[in-house]
Design goal:
single chain; about 200 residues; alpha/beta; five-stranded parallel beta sheet; two-stranded antiparallel ribbon; globular
Length: about 200
Amino acid sequence: MSKILLITSSPRRAESLSTRFATEIANGIRMQSGGSLTVRDLVANPAPHITPDYIKGRMMAPDARTAEETKAVKRAMELVDELRAADVIVIGSGMMNFGPSSQLKAWIDNITWPGITFSYETGAPHGLLTGKKVYLITAAGGVFSEGVYAPYDFQTNYLLHMLGFIGLNDVELIRIEGTVQGPEAAQAAIAKADAAVKSLLDTMA
């Protein structure tokens, strides 16, 4: 049985296509594997932006931390522990100003932690969260996978880089894009994502 972690991050909430399809994938995997599902809604329950208490506290021995540092480190470790416990991670990300939402960025800042999720012990960065499968669902109003706007995709490329940096290299990407280019383009984008999700879940059956 798989332990599944679903992370949603779009401020659009119920209207979000990244949330919709990430949720479908997570629920589909749970039904087929009989596993457990943990949901981290970063809009309803946001990760805190990092503070000096977190930056200093995570580098100190637990008994040397102030109360504020202890609290900041504990909140971040809860997020790390969710990742460690998961066999499968499903992430929904909607593009905001060419990048991920600030909610998702704050989560990344909390879990990218030297000595905990990555290490420089070998002289080069080495991710420590290995052996997990990730499904990344990104949504954007324009088309960023190719064409003139591809150089402006600071969402997908950044997320793939950061996931790999902490050891999450087995990533399957589903893009939903072009949804603001008219009703027909939006319908085509949704239909393409529907087909991709169905195909993905069918291969697991």
